[in-house]
Amino acid sequence: MRLAIFLLIFCIFEYAVGVDPTNFKTCEQSSFCRRSRKLQPGNSKFALVPGSMNTYANSITADIINKETHHLFILKLEALVDNKFRLLIDEKTPLKPRYKVEHVLVGEPQTEPLVVEKEDKTEIVLSSGTNKAVIVADPFRVDFYENGALVVSANAKGLMNFEHLRNKPQTNPDGSQNEQEGGEAAVAPQTPEDSDPGAWEENFKSHHDSKPNGPEAIALDFSFPEADVLFGIPEHADSFILKSTSGSDPYRLYNLDVFEYIIDSKMALYGSVPVLYGHGSQRTAGVFWQNAAETWVDIYLTEQNVVSSIVKLVSGSRKVDPPAAHFISESGVIDAFILLGPKPMDAFKQYTSLTGVGNLPQLFSLAYHQCRWNYNDAKDVETVSTKFDEYDIPMDIMWLDIEYTDGKKYFTWDQFKFPDPLSMIKNLTDVGRHLVVIIDPHIKRDNGYFFHNDCTEKGYYTKHKDGKDYEGWCWPGSASYPDFFRQDVRDYYADQYLLSNFKTVTSDVMIWNDMNEPSVFNGPEVTMPKDLIHHGGWEHRDVHNLYGHMHIMGTYEGLLRRDPNQRPFILTRAHFAGSQRYAAIWTGDNMADWGHLQHSIKMCLSEAVAGISFCGADVGGFFGNPDAELFERWYQTGAFLPFFRSHAHIDTKRREPWLFPEKTRLIIREAIRKRYSYLPLWYTMFYEHEVDGSPVIRPLLAHYPKDKDGFAIDNEFLLQDRLLVRPVMQHGVSKVDVYFPALDEKKTVGDVWYDADSYQKYERVGKETIAVDEYKIPVFQRGGSIVPKKERIRRSSPLMKNDPYTLIVCLDRNGKAEGTLYLDDEKSFDYRQGKFVYINYKFDGSKLTNNFVKPPNYDSKSWIERVVIAGLDRQPKSATITINGVTEQLEVVAHEKAYVIRKPGVAIHKDFEIKLNY
């Protein structure tokens, strides 16, 4: 027992003092990565078998042979709607089935006709509409064309690898090999994996991986001939644009609990989304590598062979090899979706058409969240909530970390610290606030804990190979981990959220799923051993990156069972492709320093283009104690990221805003109030994300794809195409450079931009130096856009529900603007039955009109309080509003560098026209 306590204390100490990179594998220490990375470009051993093609209406199949081992594989190529192809490669007759990812796609992808235009011994040419796929026979390669342009090429570098399943050779004492298990003669040609000591078992530090299936790695490279830059494959604390991995480890995708993570690093973090894009000034394309095993991704940006580069330059072809990515996974099959673009937004939407969109969240979840590990007790929660009112700072959600439970047993409460949770919850909801509580996947092994007893009795835990329950260490001490890959386990877990079971909460309490990589303090790389067994007999190595995804699937189902007509809010740390359908994410255990503040934008941009828009970072940094300036600037940055939460480690100083000097408190208050003023825009953007899959926050290249100087900019970002945000993220500065992107390659023209505070106009392309004081957040509205706001700020967002709207109209060079506003009951799923108001506003140079995208079917009590127009060349004398044929004169007054139409007073769901009078 003493040893167990010592181990737990040691693990927690290690957790608290910061990340040790040696606790995590390098590619060289991961045998499958090491083997695949040793392959040399231009030496592909795979070829198409002549005459093996079978044709179907929407796909073809053909055999591929490894020319060294003579092992056969089966290729399937499908044409999918909306400029997509799917490339699948599996063993033709494997010893046993290989894992194919489930629970990620929103459904079976919709196919479209695929026509064979040519077939001979050298190539097969296939067409689908204006798209084309050319399969080169030997060496095997597939080139994908969009409207005549080659945009993606698979295996162009010849780095494909597919280690077929085999029986383990039996070795004699003298080192010779007998027949293999199963009686097969050991006469197959030797492969690199046969001589690799890590192929059949592998050690890392004190941990042993038995590898019962032996070597089974897969790999494939993808080149992007039209691209200048590559981006995607979150989650990494690195730049938005991916860097060359020449001379370093590849980017790693393996969900891990990494605290105080290193910035500017290719290390694996909490989530893995294996989608990557190549972008150039003419085209964008992407690849979604659907594999849930440990994956490494090499990035090739320049050609190493200078002589070859010179030859290509002289011949008039591309000066260097195009950017390329080499995906290397430990197990599974090759299952790659090719996204042909051609525009950045096209590629992003093609990906979300496969993996889904984030559901429209309840409005409160887009407001400000207050958290720390941990608020001490119910009195502490009440005091903090009251203090926000005392200092007139809006706040919507209080959070409770693990200490609210009875000894880290989830679905329970500490009866001494929280003797009456329902009263505490009611005190919050009475003032329009919510509570979020944490529920992690590690289950305390305690014979007095119902959840543990049920999982033990019913066999619900993840197993060792011998069928015994796996036991690891996490916050409760000895813990086991439910096998969420089993439907009955997810059902059991979901039922715990029913109010008849979890009686000490209400349907308004939402959930935080943490530590679900899964985190195991005494496990290899702080996670589960790979040779554990999940439902269906699959090893953990096959499904590791999906574990957290399956956890939040269960949570989402639980909240729906609890209240079928209330939209769930879940925050998750671990995530995979498709996790956006269930939860928001945050960037994990960051630090209170300027570098981690800067990386919050880079990381959330990478997640957004990978389908996960609802992203934020712990404001102030989870570890450490931010000084006043860093804290102020972090709030100002967080106010313009989708998920806006302050959070801190248990050992940090308390950091509620009023504990800082008055100046800091007022700056933070102003940043939070600014967030609340833009809630109508946030809500509209998330609705439109659900409708069409477009990211909510976007890199500059999303809308300015021709401006090469903007490709790598990741210290500013767009909210849709309406706002450009460039937070102040440096210490002690009185000015920052803001880059205003160009619409053309020659950088001769860009959009007009207006300072969101002063309406100062900026028309020049390129960098502008903007003066900033302590309160200033450089935010600019694009000319040609209309942004809805609410400027009556209350203690929480539900109390603003019926408040009036302000429309901010910023004109383009032609004096025009357009924008949308969406509203509904902010809580239920009734909007999916059409109960909403969705409006498109247009200003044509002299009048503002509204057009309902669908007839309004929600009775809102809100109205339009004012209209602000920036960019007019002179002040109107007045304005005339017409409603149902009735006209009324409105006052127009100057405000900053704009003009305000006062008190239109028109109900939000009524048709109107406002005409300017000169």
Automatic annotation (TrEMBL):
GO terms for molecular function: alpha-glucosidase activity; carbohydrate binding. Residues 1-18 form the signal peptide. Gene3D superfamilies: Glycosidases (3.20.20.80), glycosyl hydrolase (family 31) (2.60.40.1760), Golgi alpha-mannosidase II (2.60.40.1180). Residues 805-849 form the DUF5110 domain. Pathway: Glycan metabolism; N-glycan metabolism. InterPro entries: DUF5110, Gal_mutarotase_sf_dom, GH, Glyco_hydro_31_C, Glyco_hydro_31_N_dom, Glyco_hydro_31_TIM, Glyco_hydro_b. GO terms for biological process: carbohydrate metabolic process; N-glycan processing. Residues 360-685 form the Glycoside hydrolase family 31 TIM barrel domain. Residues 693-787 form the Glycosyl hydrolase family 31 C-terminal domain. It is found in: Endoplasmic reticulum. Keywords: Endoplasmic reticulum, Glycoprotein, Glycosidase, Hydrolase, Signal. Residues 202-211 have a biased composition (Basic and acidic residues). Residues 168-180 have a biased composition (Polar residues). Pfam families: DUF5110, Gal_mutarotas_2, Glyco_hydro_31_2nd, Glyco_hydro_31_3rd. GO terms for cellular component: endoplasmic reticulum. Residues 165-212 are annotated as: Disordered. Its main location: endoplasmic reticulum. Belongs to the glycosyl hydrolase 31 family. This is Glucosidase II subunit alpha.
